[in-house]
Design a protein that fits this description.
Elements lengths: L20 H13 L26 E2 L14 E8 L4 E15 L5 E11 L2 E13 L4 E12 L2 E4 L3 E2 L6 E6 L8 E3 L1 E2 L7 E13 L2 E13 L2 E10 L8 E6 L3 E9 L1
């Protein structure tokens, strides 16, 4: 599993690919090597690795309306997570609360609740913190995540931007381009997820529906160099509608329902 990232503390968005995983993997590799315009979009004002950032609270809002990833208060996503290595199934409920959190750097962030259950019992409960800048980029400011081991709660990599050298990252850019790279989060040795945009016009089919013109990204982390995960975002749906572990993992997750 990747370290914690937006929308789920383990970043384990994994599910079926419309064109099947066997086809998507080489497609991803091709797009990483040769972006559409031949360059990797490192700039665009988006942070990379452990780049420091100087954010102004007045430029941010806890009201998130990014067209690809809206987070309206009361929105709910239900996922089914299947581990193909043993056939185990988990269920995940993500909901946007009316609560906000004042991050250490002074930015007010939206609190998003994420509960993963197995056989009806919680295995992980997380509060994620997001805010949107004036350009429409959705930023991720950390999480408080608890894992239940034999029924006992344990911290599972909680961190907050502005505390102990932790840095915020971008959950989803306002203007994605093929080849664009950006940091999703940075807590040294705990959460160092990065992402790159691979395609803008994929298709995906999950129980929640058939989606076209889907944004496809690859998540990776220097903490786990052998791990790679593809994620698919459909306009207006928020969160990833599907994802698949293509290296270093065996999970797949599919969106079952979405209400807003």
């Amino acid at each position: 599993m990747l370290a914690p990232t937006p929308g789920r503390s383990t970043r384990g968005r994994a599910t079926r690919i419309w064109r099947t995983a066997a086809l998507a993997i080489p497609l991803a590799a091709a797009l990483v090597v040769v972006p559409a315009d031949g360059v990797a979009h490192r700039s665009s004002g988006l942070p990379q690795g452990d780049d420091p950032v100087h954010l102004k609270p007045r430029d941010f809002s806890a009201n998130i309306n990014n067209s690809q990833w809206p987070m309206t208060i009361g929105s709910r996503w239900v996922y089914r997570v299947v581990d193909s290595s043993d056939g185990s199934v988990q269920h995940e409920l993500i909901s946007v609360t009316a609560r906000t959190k004042l991050i250490a750097d002074g930015i007010k962030a939206r609190v998003v609740r994420d509960i993963v259950t197995e056989h009806g019992r919680p295995v992980e409960v997380t509060s994620d913190w997001y805010a949107q800048d004036k350009h429409g980029n959705v930023w991720y400011f950390g999480e408080h995540t608890i894992e239940y081991v034999h029924g006992q709660p344990e911290d599972n990599g909680s961190w907050e931007a502005g505390v102990d050298g932790n840095l915020p990252g971008v959950a989803l850019p306002a203007k994605p381009k093929v080849g664009l790279t950006y940091r999703e989060e940075y807590s040294k040795g705990v959460a160092e997820d990065q992402s790159r945009v691979l395609a803008l016009d994929e298709q995906a089919e999950v129980p929640a529906g058939h989606f076209k013109r889907v944004l496809m990204t690859e998540d990776f982390s220097p903490i786990e160099p052998d791990v790679s995960e593809l994620k698919f975002y459909a306009k207006g749906s928020g969160q990833a509608v599907l994802a698949v572990d293509v290296s270093g993992g065996t999970d797949r997750e599919e969106l079952v329902s979405y209400t807003h």
